[in-house]
Specification:
Largest sheet: 7 strands, mixed
Shape: elongated
Radius of gyration: 24 Å
Structural class: alpha/beta
Helix content: 25-40%
Strand content: 15-25%
Number of helices: 13
């Protein structure tokens, strides 16, 4: 017990530094490194770091977590797939603009029966601009399962420290006969956006608020659109909606993938983003054009929409004419904690508000009107584009 206590004392300063960093993590572990979770959560401040920790020990659990059947359950590729899944989960759970890391471990350690293969494990971390991998083969028969758990947990903690950009101030309990190899891929902005367009990562956050803080930052207030171009009406609409929500993190959101148009190109995305940098606002680039998918990306959020969009949302025409399907999908949004803040909109020369739309009873509490006296801007991006071409 004394050895365990003295060993943890050495680890504690590193864990405190991790908790003091701004980085938040989702951690997926399969087959070992279990002590790392206990170490992290036993030091005050763990909620600053750990968003979620999952142990997908069964094969079916791991398959569901990464969304496919891996060729090998303990392999470098599986560790990377787990890290990417953890990263996307961290994006959804974190406060907007906070740096996140997906952490993954998959291992085959000593067990109750002799193993034919190596005792080994694979670690991977995914951040916005990197994918790191470590492969470790332990000296077979040199340690007990408990000792292999400690060593693998130390490696995991060191990987988290590195992702959080803090020094790991403890020695690894490795032996000279252990084998290890590391590799890292670094990504620039274009590569990140290419991954987003390919569906590998869920979204990318551009935070131009420059450290500004908001009340109830965990809740996002999201105004989605193409913003081609962004104009003062968009900015005013989000400001009014945010004031009505009593706190939250106001974000603009652009889906680079469209339901009925070609996806945006990387230069087009970067050009749209520059508009938000000029006015000091946050914009999120996602790959989900439909609100029921946006609700999964941004659970608990308030989506700011115009009356024209609200009308389409509750029109069975857009659900293959199936009224029950429309109700089912929007109730799914409701279960994620999402609501819709509805501003008036000039449609074919008529200013329409939420009261002009027939909302089904089961969905009425999801839709909140913005009074016309608080917001009315009749200009649109389409009108601006037309005026520029005249």
């Amino acid at each position: 017990m004394a050895d365990m206590n003295s060993s943890f004392t050495i680890l504690r300063s590193t864990i405190e530094a991790i908790h003091s960093s701004p980085t938040q993590a989702v951690i997926y572990l399969a087959g070992g490194a279990s002590h790392a979770l206990g170490w992290l959560t036993s030091v005050p401040g763990a909620s600053n770091t750990v968003l979620e920790a999952v142990v997908p020990y069964s094969r079916m659990s791991l398959i569901q977590l990464i969304g496919k059947v891996p060729s090998q359950f303990v392999s470098p590729q599986t560790a990377q797939d787990m890290a990417i899944a953890a990263y996307n989960r961290a994006l959804r759970l974190s406060r907007p603009g906070v740096p996140v890391v997906g952490v993954a471990f998959t291992g085959s350690l000593a067990t109750t029966r002799p193993k034919l293969g190596d005792h080994r494990f694979h670690l991977s971390t995914r951040t916005s601009d990197s994918l790191w991998l470590s492969d470790v083969t332990l000296s077979k028969g040199f340690r007990t399962r408990e000792e292999e758990e400690v060593v693998s947990s130390q490696h995991l903690l060191m990987a988290i420290a590195s992702a959080c950009k803090v020094p790991a101030l403890f020695p690894l309990g490795s032996s000279e006969s252990d084998l290890s190899a590391e590799s890292e891929e670094l990504y620039d902005e274009d590569e990140e956006l290419a991954q987003l367009l390919a569906g590998q990562i869920d979204f990318k956050v551009y935070d131009f608020y420059c450290g500004k803080h908001f009340q109830n930052e965990e809740r996002k207030i999201v105004l989605s659109g193409s913003f081609n171009p962004l104009h003062n009406g968009h900015i005013k609409l989000l400001e009014v909606a945010s004031s009505m929500c009593g706190g939250g993190y106001p974000c603009f959101e652009i889906s680079a993938v469209n339901a009925d148009k070609p996806p945006l190109t990387i230069p087009q995305i970067k050009e749209r983003v520059q508009q938000f940098e000029k006015v000091g606002k946050m914009v999120i680039i996602s790959n989900q054009p439909f609100f029921y998918k946006k609700a999964e990306l941004f659970p608990g959020s308030a989506f700011v929409i115009g009356a024209d969009t609200a009308s389409r949302l509750v029109n069975p025409k857009y659900y293959d004419g199936n009224y029950n399907r429309m109700i089912e999908i929007l109730l799914g949004c409701k279960k994620t904690g999402c609501t819709f803040i509805v501003g008036g909109r000039n449609v074919d020369g008529v200013f329409k508000v939420l009261d002009d739309i027939e909302i089904p009873d089961a969905l009425k509490d999801m839709f909140i009107p913005i009074p016309a006296e608080r917001f009315r801007v009749d200009i649109s991006s389409t009108q601006i584009r037309r005026s520029l071409t005249m």
